[in-house]
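Example record for the data management plan.
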Amino acid sequence: MCKHVLNAQVSIRSPCCQKWFDCAECHYEQADHPLLQKYDMTFACKKCRKCFRKDAQEFEESDEYCPHCDNHFIIEAMTPKPRLEVEGEDARIDSRMLKDERVKPKAKEERTIFDVEDAPHRLG
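Corresponding structural encoding:
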């Protein structure tokens, strides 16, 4: 799991050391050498877990999708943002204070004193 790009859809195989990384910053942190840049890139889709190659010189709009499962892997990267919030109790016990930006909020249900399901039958 990459801590730099929260919604990474593919892993990239480094051409210099033949190891898999989610982003170039992960390679920079873990390897003791600079990243070798080549036009022929090898990806591994995180949805279907299959590998494929793409040529970066001839990259088209159709190349933004996994050829096996059509997962759109070229999307805007969600990076962690620092923010100041009120500290609560221990997050391992009570995680209500934590907010995950990747999870969409649920639609708020309207509260009423009337029985909404029974209303059409009573309206004559």
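Summary line stored alongside the record: The radius of gyration is 23 Å.
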